[in-house]
Amino acid sequence: MTGNSHDTVSGDFGLSIEEPLIFEQDSPGALGVDWPEADIGADRLGGLARSGPVGLPSLAEPTVVRHYTRLSQKNYGIDTGLFPLGSCTMKHNPRLNERMARLPGFADIHPLQPESTVQGALALCREVQRWLSVLTGMPGVALTPGAGAHGELCGMMAIRAALDAGGAANADRQRVLVPDSAHGTNPATAAALGFEVVSIPEDGRGRVDPERFEALAGEGGVAAVMLTNPNTCGVFENDIRRIADAVHAAGGYFYCDGANFNAIVGRVRPGDLGVDAMHINLHKTFSTPHGGGGPGSGPVVFSDALAPYAPVPRIVEEAGVLRLEEANGEAFGRMKAFHGQMGMFVRALAYMMSHGADGLRQVSGDAVLNANYLLRKLEDVYSAPFAHSGPAMHEALFDDRSLRDTGASTLDIAKAMIDEGLHPMTVYFPLVVHGAMLVEPTETETRASLDRFIAIMRGLAERAKNGAPLAEAPYHAPRRRLDETQAARKPVLRWQAEG
Ligand SMILES: *Cc1c(COP(=O)(O)O)cnc(C)c1O
User: Nearest 10 degrees: CA dihedral of 311, 315, 316, 320?
Assistant: First the structure.
């Protein structure tokens, strides 16, 4: 069933064209280039000359061009429309950043070049560190981590190193307290480092209950707390100072997941809240693009207490010359080869400098305003579990209570959004909320685009209420409902020739 308002001869619809794999388009004999006859005597290959065909598809040049152009058009990106994925901060990436990152002095350098030839690039890295340090009120900055999750690993490895430096006294500090509303990377990081993860329940306001926290911290053996602020319920942990004091009194460290820094940049300095280590997702707060798994960039800022344990390399200045210090007594080691994602540093600095301090403050103000606008305009049709605990921060969280008698689910709404030309919001996360829908508009959406989003979401709620068949949406996508679990668990990554 296509569900389209009318069927087409081809079965394709508008620009939604079925595109077979390039191997399936193989047309033996077709060729986009004229190869000269190869004239390598077989004897020069010592009998290793290939005896059969290479197994690459044969295609005419226009076929190849169309194939990749069509594939590129199947992407939904921030340049195509509003990208409401909560917790991901999908904001517009200004073209100025791209222009700067392509300057040959940044784009064409090699990590093995002598330091004397890349003084400008090192100075740029230092400037990024300076901005991050000023914005967070934290003195140490490690630039190398390649993503937020990698930054968490870096911060927790520094905490581990600091605990180890404390010797036997810290031997049984193995517990890491993690709210159950945390991003999955938090407990995963703690577990990967061999810590014991202790879950802290949400208190009904979408926050950590400070008394419960103090009790847990008082039980001893605490290595650290990993807290996201603003958290993944989209609210500010307003007892954060109490939480910081409790974990410090218990002899542990405070790791803050700073992926949501977009909501507070220019207004709150995490260092003032008692944070010891925090990663910053340049690809969220500072507008560098999210890649398909990379390149992201997740620098980590450190308090005075943890800065000595930060990884190498460190950029140091001696007699006006910058160099990379590769060894340092207390550093726990390094996070990756070389020096980090240079292109991301350039983009982030271009973004920070073009906004300036006042502009960055406005970023968080507008991000929070946009999220609250959506929350207030939708909360009468989509139930909002924490609307009673004060204004949202940068994201608006809904649950599926309002869909209960409609027969439609959170998933159905998300799939119906695809037919409307929207990327779905984050669904079923955070886990503490049933049928969660987490919407993050970011500051870069205009009032008009927010109003369009609101109109669509209200319309879908209306349709669900009237019993529209949403359970088979999307109707207008080349693929309908996928077995996403199978796709994630058993991805088919290789094309197999039939027979
Ligand atoms: C995005 C995010 C992360 C992980 O960042 P990556 O760059 O995707 O590794 C961690 N915590 C929170 C709250 C996030 O939103």
Answer: 180
**Are 419 and 473 spatial neighbours (Cβ–Cβ below 8 Å)?**
yes
Residue nearest atom 12 of ligand 1, based on CA coordinates: 259
What is the best residue among 87, 153, 297, 431 to mutate for testing ligand 1's pocket, by most ligand atoms within 8 Å of CB? 87
Q: How far apart are CA 304 and CA 269, in angstroms?
A: 14
Check whether 148 has a pLDDT greater than 60.
Answer: yes
Query: CA nearest 415: which of 364, 351, 336, 482?
Result: 482
Q: From CA 189, how far away is CA 5, in angstroms rounded?
A: 49
48 confidence band (pLDDT: 50, 70, 90): confident
The strand pairing partners of 315, in sequence order, are 324
- The one-letter amino acid at 120: G
Whose CA is closest to 340, among 292, 288, 302, 304? 288
Question: CB–CB of 252/281 below 8 Å?
Answer: no
User: Where do the structural domains in the chain lie, given as residue ranges?
Assistant: 1-28+60-73, 96-352, 356-481
Q: Mind listing the pLDDT tens digit for each residue in 294-352?
A: 578 999 999 999 999 999 999 999 999 999 999 888 999 999 999 999 999 999 999 99
CB atoms within 10 A of CB 467: 10
Residue closest by Cα to atom 8 of ligand 1: 148
Local structure of 90: helix, strand or coil: coil
Whether the pTM exceeds 0.85: the reply is: yes
According to DSSP, the residues that pair with 325 across neighbouring strands are: 314
- For residue 245, the surrounding DSSP H or E stretch is helix 240-249
Q: Dump pLDDT digits (tens) for 406-452.
A: 999 999 999 999 999 999 999 999 999 999 999 999 999 999 999 99
Ligand 1 pocket mutation, candidates 178, 180, 183, criterion most atoms within 8 A of CB: 183
Q: What is the dihedral of CA 338, 344, 349, 354, to 10 degrees?
A: 170
181 by DSSP, 3-state: which? Answer: coil
Q: Judge whether residue 3 has pLDDT over 80.
A: no
> 399 CA to middle of ligand 1, Å?
22
Closest ligand 1 atom to 232 CA? 13
Which CATH number is 96-352 given? 3.40.640.10
Question: Which residues, other chains included, contact 331 with Cβ-Cβ below 8 Å and sequence gap of 6+?
Answer: 161, 308, 309, 310, 311, 312, 314
CATH class of 356-481: alpha beta
The predicted pLDDT at position 41 comes to 66
Instruction: Find the residues whose C-beta lies inside 6 A of ligand 1.
Output: 87-88, 147-149, 183, 185, 228, 232, 257, 259-260, 281, 296, 298
Which of 257, 290, 344, 431, when mutated, tests ligand 1's pocket best, judged by the most ligand atoms within 8 Å of its CB? 257
Q: Whose CA is nearest to atom 1 of ligand 1?
A: 88
Q: How far is the CA of 247 from the centre of ligand 1 (A)?
A: 23
